[in-house]
Specification:
It is a single chain. With 338 residues, the chain is an alpha/beta fold. It has two domains: 139 residues, Rossmann fold; 186 residues, Dihydrodipicolinate Reductase, domain 2. The chain is 29% helix and 25% strand. The chain contains nine helices and 14 strands. The strands form two sheets. Strands 3-4-2-1-5-6-7 form a seven-stranded mixed beta sheet, sandwiched between helices. A seven-stranded mixed beta sheet has the order 9-10-8-11-14-13-12. Strand 12, helix 8 and strand 13 form a beta-alpha-beta unit. Helix 4 crosses helix 6. The protein is globular and about 60 Å long. The termini are close together.
């Protein structure tokens, strides 16, 4: 890995931006200097990094002089407006937004799955949708056990997927309800505390919301299976961070045995099995939060289909679903350049 990199974070004051700074320290990412970039309203704020308060600057097309790597987590419109300028200035860009994910020229990377998609000349890398990352880290190791024909997913998505404002909304509404007050939505369309609802992205003509369509399209691209049959239902639940997913995988032949599945997952990078039937202990958002593995449990045959296998998984949306996946991409790109 290279030493002494000038790093920029676009969207530094958001929930994912703060995780980048923590990851740089915990993973000893080779940062010589860090430039924190956000909207004009955040100018004047500071954020701590290695014991120093670093000022937040306004993100503009002129913000990337001498930057080696720029991590973007400020939404698709800001990525489209600023990422080309960062690349033109000589930076490698790792983008957490949806702006470039389905561009056939841009690698959509989950390092545990498809680093081979990275070409030497690539300078822009897309981080997939958080739900898709968590799903595929668990599903991909099972491809060696048989051809996957269909995946059915129901998600239980946390507030962190909507950013700091949605996390704050959940915290505030929970206090309000416990104090006997009504939950008043300000960011989301429905009361969030002690409630759940269909993911708050627009519904298309076919009845699927944008989040579901992202997971479908991105899963096909990441796995290199453009014809993969996949059906997704995305639901927002009142959990602060870490997404959970109920997953059924159908193979084109008999489903692999539970023992074979456990063996495949046990050796898979980024996966940790939590599957204790005796104590009824399986993946939970609380145990997934704050760490980088995708937790997998409830491993069982689908009793309705001899070709089916069911799992329950959980992963930290801010880490493996966003910042950690981005940093892992950068680490792999830097190692490639040695």
């Amino acid at each position: 890995m290279q030493e002494g990199l000038n790093v920029a974070i676009v969207g530094a004051t958001g929930a994912v931006g703060a995780e980048f700074l923590r990851l740089f320290e915990s993973r000893h990412f080779p940062v010589k200097s860090v430039r924190l970039l956000a909207s004009a309203r955040s100018v004047g704020k500071t954020m701590p990094f290695k014991g120093v308060e670093v000022p937040v600057e306004e993100a503009t097309t002129d913000s990337f002089k001498d930057i080696d790597i720029a991590f973007f987590s400020a939404g698709a419109s800001r990525s489209k407006a600023l990422a080309p300028a960062a690349i033109e200035a000589g930076a490698i860009v790792v983008d957490n937004s949806s702006a470039f994910r389905m561009d056939p020229q841009v690698p959509l990377v989950v390092p545990e799955i498809n680093l081979h998609h990275i070409k030497p000349e690539d300078r822009l890398f897309a981080v997939p949708n958080c739900t898709a990352i968590i799903l595929l880290v668990a599903v991909n190791p099972l491809q060696k056990l048989g051809k996957i024909d269909r995946i059915i997913v129901s998600t239980y998505q946390s507030a962190s997927g909507g950013g700091a404002a949605v996390m704050s909304e959940l915290e505030n509404q929970t206090r309000e309800v416990l104090e006997g007050k009504p939950a008043e939505p300000k960011v989301l369309p429905h009361p969030y505390a002690f409630n759940l609802f269909s993911h708050n992205t627009p519904i298309g003509e076919g009845g699927y919301n944008e989040e579901e369509l992202k997971v479908i399209a991105e899963s096909r691209k990441i796995l290199g299976l453009p014809e993969l049959k996949i059906n997704v239902t995305c639901v927002r639940v009142p959990v602060l961070r870490a997404h959970s997913e109920s997953v059924t995988i159908e193979f084109d032949g008999p489903a692999p045995s539970e023992d074979a599945v456990r063996e495949a997952l046990k050796t898979a990078p980024g996966v940790r099995i939590i599957d204790d039937r005796d104590s009824n202990t399986f993946p939970m958002p609380l145990t997934a939060s704050g760490q980088g593995d995708v937790l997998v449990g409830r491993i069982r045959q689908d009793i309705s289909n001899p070709h089916g296998l069911s799992l329950f998984i959980a992963g930290d949306q801010l880490l493996k679903g966003a910042a950690l996946n981005a940093v892992q991409i950068a680490e792999a790109v830097l190692a490639r350049g040695k």
